[in-house]
TrEMBL record:
Top-rank lineage group of the source organism: Bacteria
The protein's name: Phosphate transport regulator
Alphabetized SUPFAM superfamilies for the sequence: PhoU-like
InterPro entries on file: PhoU-like_sf, Put_Phosphate_transp_reg, UPF0111_domain
Family to which the UniProt record says this protein belongs: Belongs to the UPF0111 family.
Amino acid sequence: MRFRLTPRETSFYDMFSASADNIVTGSKLLMELLGADASARAEIAERMRAAEHAGDDATHAIFHQLNSSFITPFDREDIYNLASSLDDIMDFMEEAVDLVVLYQVEELPKGVEQQIEVLARAAELTAEAMPNLRTMDNLTEYWIEVNRLENQADQIHRKLLAHLFNGKYDAIEVLKLKQIVDVLEEAADAFEHVANTVETIAVKES
C-alpha cells in the first residue's frame, strides 16, 4: 500500500458498499422472479423498480461526493467508472424484470435460471469485495472469479440463443425472449466491468 501524507475522503467506501448491497437485493428479486407466476411478477417488478431507484440515489450520492471532495481515496476517473458500472448492473437487472412483465412472458426458457444464478453469485462477490477497497486486501480472487463467472455467462448465453433459434418458438416469441436473455448477459458484462475497474484501482494503489 502506498503511504500517503494527505487525508482522504473515506465516505466513498461506505457508498460503494451500499450500492453493491443493493445489487444483491436486485439479484434476489431476479431469483424470486424465476419461481413466480404471472400474477406475482408485477409486484416483483415494482420492488425491483424501487431497488433500481435506490441504486440511482446511491450513484448520485457518489457523484455528488466526488464533485465536492478535494481529496479522494483513489483516482476520480476510477471512482466515476466504478459507480457507473455498479449502476449499470442494477439498470440491466431492472430492465430484464420489466421486459418479462411487459412482454407477458408465460415461461422463461430453460437456461435463464443459470444466467440468474451466475448474476446472484457475482452480486455476492461484489458486495463482499467493496469493503476491501479500504485496504486493497483480498481482491485478486474477487476479480479472477468474476471474470470466470462472466465467461460462464457467455457460454450460457450462447446455448440459450441456440435454444431460441431451434424452431420451437415463433418469431415474435424469439424476439421477446432474446431481448431478455441479452439484457441478462449485459448485466454479467457489467459485473466484469466492475471487477476490471477494481483491478485497475488495486494496481494503481499497489
